[in-house]
């Protein structure tokens, strides 16, 4: 499981021109699910994301987590994160989980983040989404389970 996390001052998702979710300060999380992922990966990654210290403290050091600042998360499914780009000029998605495996793990990740005390908004699984964000910093990290 791969999470591309971006520290944002705001982010939103639209489908077919209609905004379906938005957050203020927090994290935009693009989540890629692979065939090898399990519920253990979900739990481990959700705990790590919620407690990952990438928000500034009073000394402007990255010492605060999403939980510490009571920030929100916007979780968007992004199967392209599971792409193999090592060879050629076209990505391979052979390691990406099929939708029937990926969607339950995506929803489990959302629930696991909520259990960590994080307010969570979501995109729409498998939809063609327009994601807007103001990346604060910019600060972007990739975390893997």
UniProtKB/TrEMBL annotation:
- Catalytic reaction annotation: glycyl-tRNA(Ala) + H2O = tRNA(Ala) + glycine + H(+); a D-aminoacyl-tRNA + H2O = a tRNA + a D-alpha-amino acid + H(+)
Lineage summary = Bacteria, Pseudomonadati, Pseudomonadota, Gammaproteobacteria, Alteromonadales
NCBIfam families this protein is in?
A: D-aminoacyl-tRNA deacylase
Xref: Pfam families: Tyr_Deacylase
* Domain notes per entry: A Gly-cisPro motif from one monomer fits into the active site of the other monomer to allow specific chiral rejection of L-amino acids.
Q: Where does the protein end up?
A: Cytoplasm
Q: What class of enzyme is it?
A: hydrolase
Keyword annotations for this protein, in alphabetical order, are: Cytoplasm, Hydrolase, RNA-binding, tRNA-binding
Biological processes per GO annotation:
D-amino acid catabolic process
Protein name, UniProt field: D-aminoacyl-tRNA deacylase
Chief location of this protein?
A: cytoplasm
The UniProt function text for this chain reads: An aminoacyl-tRNA editing enzyme that deacylates mischarged D-aminoacyl-tRNAs. Also deacylates mischarged glycyl-tRNA(Ala), protecting cells against glycine mischarging by AlaRS. Acts via tRNA-based rather than protein-based catalysis; rejects L-amino acids rather than detecting D-amino acids in the active site. By recycling D-aminoacyl-tRNA to D-amino acids and free tRNA molecules, this enzyme counteracts the toxicity associated with the formation of D-aminoacyl-tRNA entities in vivo and helps enforce protein L-homochirality.
**Quaternary assembly:** Homodimer.
Q: Which domain of life is it from?
A: Bacteria
Q: Which GO terms describe its cellular component?
A: cytoplasm
GO function terms (MF aspect): D-tyrosyl-tRNA(Tyr) deacylase activity; Gly-tRNA(Ala) deacylase activity; Ser(Gly)-tRNA(Ala) hydrolase activity; tRNA binding
Entry-linked CDD domains: Dtyr_deacylase
Q: List the ranges annotated as motif Gly-cisPro motif, important for rejection of L-amino acids.
A: 137-138
Annotated family? Belongs to the DTD family.
EC number(s) per entry? 3.1.1.96, 3.1.1.-
């Amino acid at each position: 499981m791969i999470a591309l996390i971006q520290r944002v001052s705001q982010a939103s998702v639209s489908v077919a021109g209609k905004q379906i979710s938005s957050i203020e300060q927090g994290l935009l999380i693009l989540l890629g699910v692979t065939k090898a992922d399990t519920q253990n990966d979900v739990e481990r990654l959700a705990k790590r994301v919620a407690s990952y210290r990438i928000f500034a403290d009073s000394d402007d050091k990255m010492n605060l987590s999403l939980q510490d600042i009571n920030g929100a998360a916007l979780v968007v499914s992004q199967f392209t994160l599971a792409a193999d780009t090592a060879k050629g000029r076209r990505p391979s998605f052979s390691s990406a989980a099929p939708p029937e495996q990926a969607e339950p793990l995506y929803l489990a990740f959302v629930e696991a983040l909520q259990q960590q005390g994080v307010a969570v908004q979501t995109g729409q699984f498998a939809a063609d989404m327009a994601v807007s964000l103001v990346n604060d910093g910019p600060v972007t990290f990739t975390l893997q389970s």
